[in-house]
Amino acid sequence: MPQPLQFGFQDANSPIMEELLHFHDHAMVAVFLISTLVLYIITLMMTTKLTNTSLMDAQEIEMVWTIMPAIILMAIALPSLRILYLMDEISNPYLTVKAIGHQWYWSYEYSDYNDVSFDSYMLPTSTLSPGQLRLLEVDHRVIIPTEAPIRILVTAEDVLHSWAIPSFGVKTDAIPGRLNQTSFISMYPGVFYGQCSEICGTNHSFMPIVVEATTTPKFNAWTLHNA
Prior knowledge:
The protein is α+β, with helices and mostly antiparallel strands. The chain has two domains: 15-88, Helix Hairpins (Orthogonal Bundle), CATH 1.10.287; 95-226, Cupredoxins -  blue copper proteins (Immunoglobulin-like, Sandwich). It is 33% helix and 26% strand. It is built from three helices and ten strands. The chain has helices at 15-47, 59-88, 216-226, and strands spanning 95-102, 105-110, 117-120, 142-145, 149-156, 161-165, 170-174, 180-185, 190-195, 208-214. Strand 2 and strand 3 form a beta hairpin. The longest helix has 33 residues, at 15-47. Keywords: Copper, Electron transport, Magnesium, Membrane, Metal-binding, Mitochondrion, Mitochondrion inner membrane, Respiratory chain, Translocase, Transmembrane, Transmembrane helix, Transport. Residues 92-225 form the Cytochrome oxidase subunit II copper A binding domain. It is a multi-pass membrane protein.
């Protein structure tokens, strides 16, 4: 969950999110070095009193400022493409969950368990118990097992929505008439919060997403109880 005065991303709970954090740090180093170099050159040009009116071209400099940006872009693009393909790879998922966006709540169907389906509404502030989070708690959480590949099928019934869990590095658009998919692996148990990330109407900010990752035996017991 987000923290007050939080500066960076949430802690990662999936291999994909860890890769995204590493890529963010990698890209920020490149941005910082480029910004420092540009600021230095601008400062140098504004403070120097040297002029050269006879210099018409400089082939060496033009080669440098053409080749160097290309190398930097490749150094950023290749890790980005690697993560993109990792995010799209879904092989033999342990569990498939279908998330359907509505105005303004989520419905879930466990495709591998025909009788497990429910709607997930945000809990009103007046009904929260001590310790529960305002505008983030729901009446029915998505229960998943840890250390197992989970596939999420995302769609919508009315307007555009977006199913997003920052700790998992997941953000998938829910589009009426279209079925999108994403996957993740929860590395450790816990409760993880997200929200609809597509402006979908007046109550857009009141349709949170809560995923509870638990051990496989507890997940199996939950499915038997809700079947």
